[in-house]
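Extended Data, panel c. Modelled sequence:
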Amino acid sequence: MEITRASEQHLNEILKLCRYCSQNMKRKDIDQWDDNYPNKEIFQEDINNHSLYIAVSEESEEIIGCVVLNNDQEPEYKVVEWLYEQGKIAIVHRLMVRPNYEGKGIARSLIEFVEKLAKDNGYTAIRLDVFSENTRAVNFYKKQGYRVSGKVNFRKGEFLCCEKIIP
């Protein structure tokens, strides 16, 4: 697997990946993503801002995962009592793995990639939010060393706000 920055040519495949992930979550009764979020415009902006990274299978050359890393904190984050306030804070958004590749370490590789990228770019901590009803994702982030610092509500319900200091 290779992780690289997404470009315009990847947009349609990223949208397909997002549909697969949304459908997979719905099958698991996780009502998190839909036609409103995330959408084409959001992914286009991620590509334009050079913040979207894709994991590409070396065998099939298909996009099997993606993640966004930037410093765009949601306004709702202001109410969270974050542990790490010093330095530059990076934010993870829209981590997804193609359902037939789940359990193969793709998400872990993507998180390790963005953590290294953040460290290399002078960030001191990483923040993210995770849908509280997506227990698999919640457990994944906790296993990767992310600490829950608070909760916020978005359109679909309660999200846990997590953070991790970059060593």
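The chain is about 30% helix and 30% strand. This feature is highlighted in the accompanying rendering.
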